[in-house]
Design goal:
The chain is of the alpha/beta class and 456 residues long. Among the domains are: 3-32, no CATH class; 360-450, 2-Layer Sandwich (GMP Synthetase, Chain A, domain 3). The protein has helices spanning 3-7, 11-16, 19-31, 34-38, 40-52, 57-76, 79-88, 109-115, 151-163, 212-222, 231-244, 264-274, 371-374, 412-423; strands spanning 129-134, 142-147, 174-177, 191-194, 199-202, 226-229, 254-257, 277-282, 291-293, 300-302, 307-311, 320-326, 337-346, 349-354, 360-362, 368-370, 384-393, 396-403, 428-433, 448-450. The strands form five sheets. The protein has an eight-stranded mixed β-sheet. It has a four-stranded antiparallel β-sheet with strand order 11-12-13-14, covered by helices on one side. It has a four-stranded mixed β-sheet with strand order 19-18-17-20, covered by helices on one side. Helix 5 (40-52) runs parallel beside helix 9 and helix 11 (231-244) packs across helix 12 (264-274). The radius of gyration is 22 Å and the shape is globular.
């Protein structure tokens, strides 16, 4: 078991502590050896990620067959999968080739919403499970269980391995603009220091032209080696600095950009402005599959030892859905999980994952709140089938929500408080329960309906 997972339930307590207490606790925690903090699984997966790039196709295939069989057997212990596998006439113990996976049924987000508890492997105790929730990249909230001591150390190891392709070294200083709430006030502080990781956390909610000098001053004091940011936040920063004639007085080694789409043109702009390489990657909270740009290529390369990826049939635009099967999370494996994300495949490689456009809510004071930041992992949307934001006037937003069978109306107050903490005090928020949220003509969920114009 990793110390990181053991202490995870105390994260909110740590975040609410006074800064001097956090500073002391963080420094003590960071002094603990990495192998203790992340556990033995971290070292195992870090070595694996470093080595797999040298493996031949046969070695990768052997690894995937074993990992898939282990995930299928673990999943078959859960009532949900046992019933579905029996109906399809498949036997995980006889899984011997990658081609057999197509005989197993696909899994949807709706399955996850309605049958989550029946998808848990009963051979693992409650203490071995780590419950995680996310708003979902499309506004469909999902909750799931990770394997304590395995899932999160594995994610950290693979992230660090792929960042290293663009110059990252373990222990480097990072400045982070990825939805961290530094203040719920429109005029509040824009940063704080995370001593547990030696990171400077910068607000992605206060990135306005008026406050850019504060960002520059904070960055110049901290002098990070890497900027870890949502692509939309990195672009706002770059364009704001250019328009204001401001600049950083130190060089960056790289920009680490995930969780949103990043076009080739935007990546080129960031690299030219900051004079540093960008590492862009694709992943998701469910930790099923992970892909990142290569050492020399900007095409996304899926890690073959992280999870197994398949691609659905091409739609009218030639885009293919990413379908993944998780490795190593035997508490709650996700088998042939339809992510809802679409890939553009060029000459056999993923050139881009098609994502929604950068979407923002506009506050009364002109702040732009990224919906990616609103979608950060917490439990405010847990139990809902869908969430949708509607805005037609600056500073006013309506959150429409569709309850699921597990939703409890008494949680509405907590959802309001959680949203206002992120939105800030220059928003008027209305909550409205709906039978169904508005969808596109193709039946897809719309995360934001806005009558306002916002661009980066």
């Amino acid at each position: 078991m990793s110390l990181e997972d053991t202490l995870y339930p105390l994260l909110k307590l740590y975040e609410a502590a006074p800064q001097p207490v956090k500073l002391l606790a963080g420094r003590v925690y960071r002094a603990i050896p990495t192998s203790w903090r992340y556990g033995a699984a971290y070292t195992r997966f870090l070595n694996e990620a470093r080595e797999v790039e040298t493996w031949d196709a046969a070695a990768i295939r052997r690894y995937q067959v074993v990992a898939l069989r282990d995930s299928l057997i673990a999943s078959s212990k859960a009532p949900f999968y046992a019933e579905r596998f029996a109906a399809c006439g498949v036997d995980p113990s006889k899984f011997e080739s990658l081609e057999q996976l197509k005989d197993y049924p696909l899994l949807t987000k709706q399955d996850l919403l309605l049958h989550r508890e029946k998808m848990v492997n009963p051979e693992f105790s409650v203490k071995q499970r780590l419950y995680i929730t996310t708003g979902g990249s499309s506004g469909v909230p999902v909750g799931f269980y990770l394997h304590k001591g395995v899932s999160r150390p594995k994610e950290q190891a693979y992230l660090e391995a792929q960042w290293s392709r663009r110059g990252y070294r373990i222990g480097d200083r990072l400045a982070v603009i990825r939805g961290g709430v530094t203040s719920s006030k429109a005029r509040g502080g824009i940063s704080y220091y995370d001593a547990t990781r030696n990171w400077l956390i910068l607000s992605s909610y206060h990135l306005t032209p008026e406050r850019l000098p504060e960002y520059v001053a904070a960055l110049n004091r901290f002098r990070p080696q890497h900027l870890h940011a949502y692509p939309s936040a990195a672009l706002l920063l770059a364009r704001g600095l250019a328009q204001a004639g401001l600049k950083l007085d130190f060089p960056l080694t790289s920009l680490l950009c995930g969780s949103e789409k990043l076009t080739a043109e935007s990546q080129q702009h960031l690299e030219q402005f900051f004079g540093a390489r960008v590492c862009h990657w694709y992943g998701h909270s469910e930790r099923v599959v992970l892909a990142a740009q290569g050492r020399t290529s900007n095409h996304l390369q899926f890690w073959p030892t992280y999870g197994f990826v398949e691609f659905g049939e091409a739609n009218a635009d030639g885009h293919r859905e990413i379908i993944g099967t998780s490795f190593h999370n035997h508490v709650m494996p996700l088998i042939r999980y339809r992510t809802g994300d679409l890939a553009i495949i060029t000459n056999g490689e993923v050139s881009e994952v098609v994502g929604r456009d950068y979407e923002f809510l506009i506050s009364a004071t002109g702040r732009r709140i990224s919906l990616t930041a609103i979608n950060m992992h917490d439990n405010i949307f847990d139990g809902l089938l869908a969430v949708q934001f509607f805005q037609e006037r600056v500073g006013e937003v309506e959150c429409r929500f569709q309850p699921g069978p597990q939703w409890q109306s008494r949680r509405e107050a907590a959802m309001r408080a959680g949203l206002l903490k992120k939105l800030g005090d220059d928003f008027i928020l209305t909550l409205r329960e709906v039978q169904e949220v508005e969808k596109t003509s193709a039946g897809k969920h719309k995360w934001l309906i806005s009558a306002l114009k916002s661009s980066i």
